[in-house]
Amino acid sequence: MDSSDSAPGGSVPAGINVIDGVRSSRKITHIILDLDGTLLDTEAVVQQVVKEILERDYRKEYDPAGVEKRLGLRPIEGYQHVVDDYGLPCTAQEFMDKTIPMMKQRYPSIPQLPGAGRLLTYIKRHRIPVALASSSLRMSMQLKVGAHEGWPEILAVSVAGEEVVNGKPAPDIFLKAAELLKAPPESCLVIEDAPAGVQAGKAAGMVVLAVPSLPKKKHRPLYEAADAIVASLLDFRPEEFGLPPFDDYICDALPIEPWYLGGPVIKGFGRGSKVLGIPTANLPTSSFQDKMAEHTCGIYLGWAGLRGKVYKMVMSVGWNPYFDNDSKTVEPWLLHEFEDDFYDEELRLVVVGYIRPEANFPSLDALVKRIREDGRIAKNALEHSPYAEYGQDAYLTTPLAENGVQSS
Ligand code: ADP
Ligand code: RBF
Ligand code: MG
């Protein structure tokens, strides 16, 4: 299909979003959602609190390597791992009691994961019966959900960790959620980020979509049981489960809250022009770590400001699975032929649309073809609302102040 054919409100381009293809043909009528790590980015806050307590009360250095074991479990079970791993002279309950006032303070500021708000809006609009099945305490769950407008109403049916006998990976919590929905388990789709949650959903006889919060290749076997895996909620294609499709794609891309990035162009791996024939102007991710954590890897479109002029661009954010890089890069391809290169020069980006997740390809040729298609999608979409307007954004052409600090 020519991307210029697509009208506003078009559907998601087929075939590239679900990483492994959906391994179930069951028709889904109900959705059961996990909260932490699936809808909300709770992990950073939990890790920060655990780190602070370890340092302050036990003079221990925090090691993020232990996170895997805790993921998806009920808090008391998760903190038992912390107590054991660090050999702490306290019980899991005592450790948890220290976390509660600290967590309470931070719950309201826990950010939504990409695509979470959009998914809930979709669920509400299509009146899909939905339940929340969260391992956390009801008190915590209410504080976290309550911080986001409209969420308490949409997620009115819920089960908390203390309301079942056995926590994930046991099926109890999902079975209880299905019971509240009066839904047969086999018609329920569970959406989960944690291996323990995926196991629980399968043990309950449900279809499970994994949105791994352990995204590295080495973690993939932990998600073996899932019926489908997507990189983020943005890549969920409900029609593959018999649900109505999203209809918020415009010109083959998904409008997003714009993000603003800038910095001097740095050297990449040196293969953009040479190997692919597609030059990409790499930016130093160290200067916007927070933005990198907030957004998923994937292919985006937007506007680039260089030497006081504005250009269309299409950009890759991530690990380049085809090359299996071990660092995350941000690399826009400016859709313009330049006479010379522009290393060390200040480049500004306003990113306004999401096209697709990063993917692996069977050949270099297939990768290049797909990148050129992304370029065509960007070129076209940026002619249209709501993407086109941002080409006027002053951020793109505002020069750096004398001291090198960005003025916006
Ligand atoms: P590297 O691996 O160092 O990023 P590339 O082969 O990807 O090398 O080439 C990128 C460089 O080419 C950019 O840093 C920039 O200076 C230059 N360049 C020329 N034209 C473009 C373009 N249209 N888009 C992006 N970069 C371009
Ligand atoms: N690399 C991948 O491994 N998988 C991809 O899906 C992918 N998509 C890209 C899309 C665009 C628009 C651009 C500009 C690059 C993409 N790349 C992808 C990155 C490409 O591998 C990288 O630019 C080169 O390796 C040069 O560093
Ligand atoms: Mg490059």
Automatic annotation (TrEMBL):
Keyword ATP-binding: yes
Signal peptide: none
Annotated SUPFAM superfamilies: HAD-like (SSF56784), Riboflavin kinase-like (SSF82114)
One GO process term, biological-process aspect: FMN biosynthetic process
Pfam families linked to this entry: Flavokinase, HAD_2
Pathway info: Cofactor biosynthesis; FMN biosynthesis; FMN from riboflavin (ATP route): step 1/1
SMART domains per UniProt: Flavokinase
Riboflavin kinase domain residues: 254-383
Keywords: ATP-binding, Flavoprotein, FMN, Hydrolase, Kinase, Nucleotide-binding, Transferase
EC number: 2.7.1.26
InterPro entries the UniProt entry points to: HAD-like_sf, HAD-SF_hydro_IA, HAD_2, HAD_sf, PGP-like_dom2, Riboflavin_kinase, Riboflavin_kinase_bac/euk, Riboflavin_kinase_dom_sf
Protein name: riboflavin kinase
Lineage, highest ranks first: Eukaryota, Viridiplantae, Streptophyta, Klebsormidiophyceae, Klebsormidiales
